[in-house]
Design brief:
By secondary structure, this protein is an alpha/beta fold. The chain is built from four helices and seven strands. The protein has a single domain, classed as Rossmann fold (3-Layer(aba) Sandwich), CATH 3.40.50. The chain has a five-stranded parallel beta sheet with strand order 5-2-1-6-7. The longest helix is centred in the N-terminal third of the chain and has 14 residues, at 26-39.
């Protein structure tokens, strides 16, 4: 479809088995993602791209505990293990991911004090990546999402895409979830309420 873009979220080594912030079942979705890439004419990749010592890393805080929550100027923020540090093997795309068709790569999370789940807006909800402008300038009205992790970067991207006016669908079989304290069920519900279509197939 000429007005549809596939957005592949953060299929990077650190989010796959053996990585610093591994999502259970992540590597298994790579072939499914590749099938979607093969079916789409327009592909966008996103890439978590943190500087060393990023404020969202538990290691940046005295006594910081991974997966705990602290208050940032913009609200609650989960502290994560160091992951997807710029230029490291962990930040690279999974070696099995078919990246050749990507027309643009959106890097996010590179501001030292702001985490970024969504490919459209960082976690302060003010700092924009420019992805919405890019998609609209190219005439896309519909986006299909897949990748990692369903309940964080995929979900936040989907909800922001709806708020930006796009028709949005997710191929759940091409995602994997962290499911931190019930986050998968909660974010599936939030996406449903936002009008995201959750039943697309590969």
């Amino acid at each position: 479809m000429p007005n549809e873009a596939l957005i592949v979220i953060d299929v990077q080594n650190d989010f796959c088995e053996g990585g610093a912030l591994a999502v259970a079942g992540a590597a298994a979705v790579v072939p499914v993602v590749n099938r979607l890439i093969a079916k789409h004419d327009h592909v966008v990749l996103t890439q978590d791209w943190h500087p060393p010592g990023h404020a969202s890393f538990a290691s940046a805080w005295s006594g910081g505990v991974p997966f705990s929550t602290v208050q940032f100027p913009y609200g609650p923020q989960t502290l994560w293990p160091d992951h997807c540090v710029q230029g490291t093997p962990g930040a690279a795309f999974h070696p099995g991911l078919a990246t050749d068709k990507a027309e643009v790569v959106v890097r996010k999370g590179f501001h030292p004090g702001i985490d970024s789940y969504s490919a459209f807006r960082e976690n302060d909800r003010m700092t924009r990546t420019g992805l919405d402008g890019y998609l609209k300038a190219r005439g896309f009205t519909r986006v299909v999402l897949c990748g990692l992790a369903l309940d964080y970067c995929v979900a936040w991207t989907a909800i922001d895409a709806r708020q930006a006016g796009f028709d949005v669908g997710i191929v759940q079989e091409a995602t994997a979830a962290i499911d931190l304290e019930g986050s998968k069920k909660r974010m599936l519900n939030e996406m449903r309420l936002a009008g995201v279509k959750l039943n697309l197939t590969a």
